[in-house]
Amino acid sequence: MNPLSSRYRLGAMGVYWAAYHRPNVHTCRPLEHPMREHLLFTYKFNLGHLESLVKDLTDEQMVQQPHGVVNHPAWTLCHLASAANHTGMALGLESSFPADWEEAAKTGGEPSADASRYPSKEALLAELKKQHERVSAAVAGAETATFAKEYPDEGTRKYFPTIGDFVDYLLSAHEANHIGQIAAWRRAMGRAPSAG
């Protein structure tokens, strides 16, 4: 069977078969966790992007809601730090997210323009960085079989059947979605899309 013409389901977290093409030669060889490394690169890149998006903002600006843009940067960073904590818990880590921040961060919550309801930008970035480091280490060190396990929460499992599905989404698409929201928020504020 020609590996280049076959369809392969690439396991985003584990060992998969990659096809390489050289003139007149088709080879197929196993690689150890290549997609995991790419996912962790994206996760690290996301953190740097988030830092650049809020670099020039004051704590007061972090909660402004221009032209009805509700999800401001303070809520977004708090939410992403909470989501990272939940990702770590899915991988077997203990929760380390500040309990008194949960209300401000919850999915479906109503972000407030009151700066006193949120930690400072500095504290939010420190927590997000801490959670990123914990999750990155957990992903890098997890057994491949962990990612194939059924996600424990039934409600979440409707959307993410396995721990791997959940982790992949939270580290990539979920953060990218919120990065886009902050970039749009900056435009609504009359700022460049990134402080670079």
What does this structure look like?
This protein is mainly α. It has a single domain, classed as Four Helix Bundle (Hemerythrin (Met), subunit A). 51% of the residues lie in helices and 7% in strands. The protein has seven helices and two strands; from the N terminus they run E-E-H-H-H-H-H-H-H. It has helices at residues 34-54, 73-90, 102-105, 121-141, 144-148, 154-157, 163-188, and strands spanning 16-22, 25-31. It has a two-stranded antiparallel ribbon with strand order 1-2. Helix 1 packs parallel to helix 7 (163-188). The longest helix has 26 residues, at 163-188. The protein is globular. The model is unreliable at 1-31 (pLDDT under 50).
How would you concisely characterize the structure shown here?
It contains seven helices and two strands; from the N terminus they run ββααααααα. It is mainly α.
Tell me the name of the CATH class. Answer: Mainly Alpha
CATH superfamily: dinb family like domain
CATH fold assignment: Four Helix Bundle (Hemerythrin (Met), subunit A)
Structural class: mainly alpha
- Kindly state the number of beta strands: 2
How many strands, what sense, and barrel or not for the largest sheet? 2 strands, antiparallel
**Count of separate structural domains:** 1
Which sequence of SSEs, written as H and E, runs from N to C? EEHHHHHHH
The Rg value, from CA coordinates, equals: 19 Å
Number of helices: 7
Q: Report strand order across the widest sheet.
A: 1-2
Low-confidence stretches: 1-31
Question: What is the CATH architecture annotation?
Answer: Up-down Bundle
Query: Quaternary state, please?
Result: single chain
Task: Give the mean pLDDT.
Answer: 85
Note the overall shape.
Answer: globular
Proportion of helical residues:
40-55%
User: How much of the sequence is in beta strands?
Assistant: 5-15%
Distance between the termini: 49 Å
